[in-house]
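--- STAGE predict ---
source: upstream dedup step, 1 unique chain passed
mode: sequence only
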Amino acid sequence: MGEQSPAALIDYIYPESYSLHPTNLNFKRTIIMSKKVYLRRKGLGGHLPKAVTAEAKTRLSSVYVNRQPLKGFSPEEEKKYMQGILDVSPEHVDWPKHSKNFWADLSIPVGFTGVELEIGKDENGIPTSIMDYIKYNFAIKHPYVALTKEEMELDVTKKFYIQDLAREDKVKNNAIKLKKDADKEFIKVSSNSNNMKRILRLMSNTNPDRMTDDQIENSLYELKNSNPKKFLRIATDKNLEVRAEIEEMVSAGVLRKIGNQVIYIDEVLGDTIEDTIVHLKDKKNSGKLTVLRAKLKELSLI
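--- STAGE serialize ---
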């Protein structure tokens, strides 16, 4: 491998980048955390040859908001990051004018492969590449830029999107963790047929009382897979029993719903389901809950 300088050796050992400043034979090490994202454009479409579209560039240029050019920074951030970028200091009387001209003239050409932007910072919060950091903050605030490709494809006004591979990995990992948590909760509730019925009632319009145990488990498993977030929220609800009972009472006609209000005969039990749960769980209303449960049981025997 041959002889290497101290800097080369340190770069080889550590994944971060380091700035080395020899002072009395001691090295001062500054950690720089690299983070790259990509500004990409929507496909040009049409009938142009691929070779032409590959070479073409689409510009992300300034837009005006309230008669002012869109800015990527707040006034405080401008003073922090753009000192040295503009021709005057933040204290200069012409700073606002130079700032306005800078943002009005800012334009980012985006080709077929996109634009790589280094937005990492060092341990002191200083951007590794200030111009890339400026362009990134300008882009994420721009009305034509989506934060994901999926968002861009769903919105005809979006012409560009930010590809952040680290964020995409985090989103995917969070989705995996959510599904794993839902699977664990499903195993718990599958040992309690009453809870399975309650969750199924709240997740669908199905009446579990008319289903076999196998049908209930199969249906709930499919619902859990299609919407693990909703399943997990309902399955771990501390008020699951009362919430499901209220829905069952409404379906059976013991209670009525007008808008969000839940009504028993002429009495409003709550303006929302949540209010109704609080009302029925209040100890002073325990007799009322007992009556409602009895009426529900009577109807189930008919």
